[in-house]
Design brief:
The structure is a homodimer. By secondary structure, chain A is an all-alpha fold. The first copy, chain A, is built from nine helices and no strands. The longest helix of chain A has 26 residues. At the A-B interface, α6, α7, α8 and α9 of A face α6, α7, α8 and α9 of B.
Chain lengths: 197, 197
């Protein structure tokens, strides 16, 4: 008799939480089972590929969350600079609330498992693509041409992802706010007309 | 009889290599001993605090390497933009050489152990401070005032650290080059005189 699918999502959510806090290597299957409240059998049922296949699902889920956040913020803001600052404020608040344990939900797993694990690579690439696509659209709306918008979207993604690491080490959201505010300022300066040189 | 200090450095170097490739959690003391070629006893001799104390030494060593690289590049380049592009080229080359396994020598350890481990936090903060100090000096030399130079140095550090993660996942140095080139372009634009608005 097939099990009801009700335990799949709790297992993935527990994995995202534990991987982002302690890393993939330090998280045991028993930790995931305990945190999720799912019966142990359901873990093997949904993830017959074991821990590596849970890592893929966790990266996919983390990617979906970032995309959902960015889509909401993109709709609520009038420029990429505003979007970045709003995102940095949100991340700072979440980080502070977790005692600076909840950093980027996918960075640690990506660093522990790529480039060796092809499936995790693939999930990571898709997550980056989706994230960069939203920022690219917003940068086009700001007035940047297609090629530059894509490049700036990649830079903005890297800057916030990097700042999350420093925020965790320093136990403050400041690096996030600085990165977003300085990018916002420079993006605005890039769009303003220049004096003839 | 005290052991000669000859095995300390190989143990730290092995740890930096293994932590950056596989993460702290997945690296066993036996892996470190084997990679370093040091006798097992020397590991306990130099690091009586065990694996966590090796993590601190590895983050300190990683910090020293980044600082040495940045100091060399700062002396060889005439602007922060040039420095960032030279650094990105160097990192891309190193990454490609290792099959994209050797990312940032401290990010993975920082994410796995902070903010819980105070000693690793402290080593991480010092490494960030030293790195940001060099970029701040270079940005001042470009013509930015002190406050803005410090903030931009933090942004540039975050952007390259974040781009290293994407480079690893995508198995290409492109995200690094894009981040450095776009920062370089925007820094230059920030310094140019503007048309009266």
């Amino acid at each position: 008799m097939p099990r009801p699918p009700k335990h799949r999502k709790p297992i993935i959510d527990a994995s995202v939480t534990l991987f982002r806090r302690h890393g993939y290597g330090a998280t045991g299957l028993n930790d995931i089972v305990e945190w999720s409240g799912a019966p142990k059998g359901s873990l093997y049922h949904y993830f017959p590929g074991g821990k590596p296949s849970i890592a893929v699902a966790a990266v996919e889920e983390a990617g979906r969350r970032v995309v959902a956040t960015l889509e909401t913020l993109a709709a609520e803001t009038t420029s990429t600079g505003e979007l970045l600052c709003a995102h940095a404020r949100l991340l700072s608040r979440w980080m502070a609330k977790s005692g600076f344990r909840d950093g980027c939900p996918m960075t640690t797993v990506l660093l522990e498992l790529t480039p060796a694990d092809r499936s995790v690579n693939e999930a990571g690439r898709s997550a980056y693509d989706a994230r960069i696509r939203i920022l690219t659209q917003k940068l086009r709306a700001d007035g940047f041409d297609d090629a530059r918008a894509t490049r700036l979207a990649s830079l903005c993604t890297a800057a916030l992802q990097g700042a999350l690491i420093e925020a965790r080490v320093r136990r403050t959201g400041k690096p996030l706010m600085i990165a977003a505010e300085e990018l916002s300022r420079m993006l605005e300066e890039s769009l303003r007309p220049r004096a003839p040189s």
